[in-house]
Amino acid sequence: MNSYLRGLRLERWPRSTAIFLGSAVYFYLHRDVLSSWSAATIFFRLVLAFLLTWAISTANYVVNEIVDAPFDAHHPVKRNRPYLQGRIRKGPFLLLGAGLAAAAFLAAKVFFSWPFFLSLLALLGAGFVYNIKPIRAKDIPFLDSISESANNPIRFLIGWFSFAPGNFFPPAAVLIAWWSFGNFLMTAKRLSEFRLLKGRAVDYRLSHKRYSKASLLLGMVASAAVFLLSFLDFAVRRNLRWLVYLSPLLLVYLYLFFYKTLGEQEIMEEPESLLQNPLIAALTGAILILLVLSFFFP
CB neighbours of 266 closer than 8 A, spacing ≥ 6? Predict the structure, then answer.
């Protein structure tokens, strides 16, 4: 059973905490509705929304574990995944993933709105588009990072619709900013692979056939620019001066990701692992503290 648990990649639960941003932005923009929710209800809905998001993400990892096995064989770390090593049977593993997804959708239907349910469905669909033929966006240059980072705005919507009315949508600029920031990180991950896997990079990720170091760097710069412009557009339109004042910190933040991506001598496996860097972790904490302060001192 340990191999099946490893295949589910439960340790990637931090990615599902991205839904909290959607909930936080909803209450940040609509503070007047906060008093209509009890603390117990908010806690319950946040925890349940997180667990359902985690379940759907885990179901997507089941699919990825199976369809990516021929490519993972060329990766220095992923070659040790349990399905590739023959320690997982395909049928029971797929049933496990399907069971998780079915339970998540049932709970979503009972406790949340239709937009929440559809956002959860979009998260599962994004995993299929990314991993499974005939589309398999993972093999298409730049579309691979764009489709993978689509999980960011989808998770944002899950968090938003945990509390927002079904006909009430978040500002488009916020979704674009969060999507482009995710694309920045995913492009950085591919640049890390391209630099360090060299000739083996194509065997692991087919999109590397048409990548170059210059094109990936350009992709990072473009994503960073879209992120900053969208963020500032949102802040200025809403007259949120605290957020405008944050922009220099965000520039430093992006620079640190550039620096680490180009300087590391190991492949950047998962972007969240960058938080193990003390400077990045400290800057992340500082930005979060300033955002919390801006809530209490608008």
Answer: 196
Tokens of 2: 């340990």
Name the pLDDT band for 270 (thresholds 50, 70, 90).
low
Q: What is the pLDDT of residues 107-146, one digit of tens each?
A: 999 999 999 999 999 999 999 999 898 888 988 888 999 9
Tell me: pLDDT of 52 over 70: yes
Average pLDDT over residues 6-12: 83
- Pairwise CA distance, residues 149 & 131, whole Å: 13
Cβ distance 82 to 88 under 8 Å? Answer: yes
CB within 8 A of 227, min separation 6: which ones?
A: 177, 180, 181, 184, 254
**Span 160-184, pLDDT tens digits:** 999 999 888 999 999 999 999 999 9
CB distance 232 to 224 below 8 Å: no
Please state the three-class secondary structure of 242-275 as a single string. Answer: HHHHHHHHHHHHHHHHHHHHHHCCCCCCCHHHHH
pTM score: 0.90
Structural element, H or E, at residue 197: helix 172-197
CA distance 245 to 140: 37
Comparing C-alpha atoms, which of 172, 157, 170, 167 is closest to residue 120?
Answer: 157
Burial label for 77, CB within 10 Å (0-12, 13-18, 19+), is exposed
Chain position carrying tokens 């999507």:
179
Beta-carbon contacts of residue 224 (< 8 Å; ≥ 6 apart) = 180, 184, 254
Q: Which residues contact 75 (CB under 8 A, 6 or more apart)?
A: 197, 204
Q: Which two tokens stand for residue 179?
A: 């999507």
* CA atoms of 79 and 65, how far apart (whole Å): 11
How many residues does the structure list for the chain? Answer: 298
Contact 87, 95 (CB under 8 A): no
